[in-house]
Amino acid sequence: MGQYYTALVIDRDNKIKKLESHSLDSFGKLWEHAWIGVEFVNAVYSLIHNNPCKVAWIGDYSKSLYEAEGDLSKAASEPQMSDIFPALFPKDKMAERAPRKVSVSWMKALPYKEFAKLFDFAWGETWSMTTSDFTKEQLNLVNCDTKGTYLVNHDLKCYLDMAAYIRRSTKKNGRCFNPLPILTACGNGLGNGDYEGRSCIDDVGTWAFHRIEYTDRIPEDYSEKKYRFIEKRDTCSTIFAR
Predict the structure, then answer these.
(1) What is the dihedral of CA 220, 225, 226, 228, to 10 degrees?
(2) What distance in Å separates the CA atoms of residue 45 and residue 39, rounded to the nearest whole number?
(3) Cβ(206)–Cβ(63) under 8 Å?
(4) Mean pLDDT of 57-78
(5) Residue 239 is assigned to a structural domain of this protein
(6) E-state strands within the chain
(7) Per-state percent for the chain, helix, strand, coil, to nearest 5
(8) Per the domain annotation, does 230 fall within a domain?
(9) Distance between CA atoms of 2 and 71, rounded to whole angstroms?
(10) Residue 16: pLDDT over 60
(11) Cα–Cα distance between 101 and 181 in angstroms, integer?
(12) DSSP state letter for 142
C-alpha cells in the first residue's frame, strides 16, 4: 500500500503554507518526488530561501502511528513495522520486506494534539499552493549543478553542504535523493514508496518541524552534517515527477 505526502511550511508568524504534490505537477510518494531537481520540492526550497521556517513532509499514514502507539513525544526507540501494523504487514510476509524501520524521530517534535491539527490541515480541504505561485527560477532552485548553498537547521545548529551532498550521493544512473523531504518525513516506513535506502535510515525525519533555511551562508559555530541518502537497490521504476 502506498503512502502519499503533503509538505507544510510554517513561518515565524505561524502562518502555514501547504504544498500538495499534484498541485505542483508531481506525484505523491517519496520515491516518486524526493529527488534533486523536482519542481515540487524546489517550491518548498524557495519558501525557505533565506527565510527560516518549520518544515514537515506529512505522510497520510503518519497519524495512524500516533493512534497505534500513543503520544511518543519522548520516545527513545524506533518500533519495527510488524509491531505496529500486523494486519497490513503480517509476519509471514515480513521476510519479503524486512529489514524495514518506521521512523519515530519526528514524533518527538510535537505532542499528538498539535500534530493532529497539522495533519488535518495537510490532508483536509485546505488550499494548496500551485505551480503558478512560483517562478521558473524558483522551480529550478536546486539542481545537480547547485553549488555554494547550504541547508541549515537552526534548531540543531547544523548544516548540509548541498554541493558536497549531491556529489557523494549521486548514483551512476544520475539519480540523487533530495535530503529535505527525507529529513522532514513524518511516517516514513509505513507504506510502499517510502525511503528504504541503505544509508542514514536513522536520520529520516529528524529535521521535521525544525526551523530550516536554504542559504548561501553558514552560521557561525554550526556543525556540518554529511548525510548520504542512497537507494537500497539499483533498479526502480521510472521517476514520474518533474
Answers:
(1) -140
(2) 10
(3) no
(4) 71
(5) no
(6) 5-10, 16-20, 53-59, 150-153, 158-161, 185-186, 210-215, 223-225
(7) 30, 20, 50
(8) no
(9) 24
(10) yes
(11) 17
(12) S
User: Which grid cell sits at 96?
Assistant: 519479503
Q: To the nearest whole number, what is the mean pLDDT of the chain?
A: 86
Q: Determine which of 22-26, 35-39, 103-107, 147-151 has the lowest per-residue pLDDT on average.
A: 103-107
Note whether 109 and 135 are within 8 A (CB). Answer: no
Calculate helix-pair angle for 112-123, 62-69, nearest 10 degrees: 150
pTM value > 0.70? yes
Q: What is the pLDDT of residues 31-59, one digit of tens each?
A: 999 999 999 999 999 999 999 999 999 99
Number of neighbouring beta carbons within 10 Å of residue 82: 17
**Does residue 193 sit within a domain?**
yes
How far apart (Å, rounded) are the C-alpha atoms in residues 31 and 34?
Answer: 6
Q: Is the pLDDT assigned to residue 1 strictly greater than 90?
A: no
On whether residue 105 sits in a domain, the answer given is: yes
Q: Which residues pair with 20 in a beta bridge?
A: 6
Helix, strand, or coil here: 153?
strand
Q: Work out how many domains the chain is built from and give that number.
A: 1
- State how far the Cα of 170 lies from the Cα of 212, in Å rounded to an integer: 23
